[in-house]
Write a structure and sequence with these properties.
- This protein is α+β, with helices and mostly antiparallel strands.
- The chain is built from ten helices and six strands.
- The strands form two sheets. Strands 1, 2, 3 and 6 form a four-stranded antiparallel sheet that branches. The chain has a two-stranded antiparallel ribbon with strand order 4-5.
- The longest helix has 29 residues.
């Protein structure tokens, strides 16, 4: 009798298997619907007669406009509470789902967690300042003289028949061609249209920050307010358009999309998005008439530095999983985050 009771007690004391984690609703195919039909890759197809830099600038400005429309929903102040839905009390950190938390570097270079509304507002100010800066997004193009070639200006400075030329320093054959070439010989995205050499790296940094804002919209506010407002299809439509441009032109890394990978994979399987991005090109059914998804240049390493409310310029970074526990910063001013 005592043996049976002992066996029964041991059976009852055995721990039950942990319940599997609940999959967020926005990662389920049922809720991955859109408000439009068709192939989003046609919306990103570059017309043949438009410069790549001009087209990229247009796409970034358009994606920022669409993101702002979604952010405006969580930033609208409630007339009863006097606070927006995304506020420091409800969103004390810039969470992106899947264990991703985005932090900032303070003046001393230390990572610090700030509230999601502060993070998002800082990103918005920084991106707007970039778009409004004619040194990054030029609004006027100085045309070349009729019949002149791109290198004609450099030829006028040649000292032919004058004083003795000045010998250049020794050249190392181990140096990359990008360093051996002079400024007039180097090429970069948008150079012909007057965009600066750092334009592509700025675009990549802007896209990285916009991606983090989308991650927070889903992780922190998909149910409230988007589901309650029946606006999840609008959010999905803006996001798939954003991801499509990023993947097609290679300005959005897979690492940046990691928090939203299950949703992106659903759209990839449906053929709505390119399958992958490798070295600035997208594999998959790229639309004819585009640049083949290839953007010149290597990934930039510039870190966005939005203007902070306290008068300093913090640099964004991401801490996830073991990196966060170990205190790894993942970047700083002038480095990739």
């Amino acid at each position: 009798m005592s043996t049976e009771s002992g066996e029964q007690a041991s059976v009852q004391s055995m721990p039950s298997a942990p319940a599997p984690p609940r999959v967020p609703f926005y990662f389920r195919e049922k809720f991955a619907t859109l408000i439009v039909r068709g192939n989003f890759m046609t919306l990103a197809a570059k017309p043949m007669v438009i410069d790549e830099g001009e087209w990229m600038a247009h796409q970034v400005v358009e994606q920022y406009r669409l993101l702002n429309e979604m952010l405006r929903i969580i930033q609208e102040v409630n007339g009863h509470t006097g606070m927006p839905i995304c506020n420091p009390r409800e969103c004390p950190t810039m969470s992106g789902g899947g264990g991703h938390t985005y932090t900032w570097l303070d003046q001393a270079g230390r990572p610090c967690r700030i509230s999601a509304p502060h993070y998002i507002a800082s990103v918005q100010r920084w991106i707007k300042s970039k778009i409004d800066d004619p040194n990054t997004f030029p609004i006027e193009i100085v045309p070349s003289a009729p019949g002149s070639s791109p290198n004609s200006a450099s030829r006028t400075n040649l000292n032919i028949g004058g004083a003795a030329p000045i010998a250049a320093g020794p050249t190392s054959l181990n140096e990359p061609l990008s360093q051996l070439a002079g400024p007039a010989d180097r090429n970069w995205l948008g150079k012909a249209a007057g965009f600066p050499e750092h334009f592509e790296s700025d675009v990549r940094s802007m896209y990285k920050q916009m991606m983090r804002c989308y991650c927070h919209l889903y992780a922190g506010h998909w149910e409230k307010p988007f589901w309650h407002l029946n606006a999840t299809k609008e959010l999905n439509t803006c996001f798939i358009h954003f991801v499509n441009v990023g993947k097609l032109f290679g300005i959005l890394d897979d690492k940046d999309m990691e928090p939203m990978k299950p949703l992106v994979d659903i759209w990839v399987e449906k053929g709505l998005l390119p399958t992958a991005v490798t070295n600035g090109s997208s594999s998959g059914s790229a639309t004819p008439g585009t640049a083949g998804g290839v953007m010149p240049g290597a990934p930039g390493n510039a870190t966005p530095v939005p203007t902070g409310q306290e008068g300093y310029s913090p640099a964004p970074q991401s801490t996830t999983g073991s990196d966060a526990a170990a205190g790894a910063t993942g970047g700083g001013p002038g480095t990739a985050v």
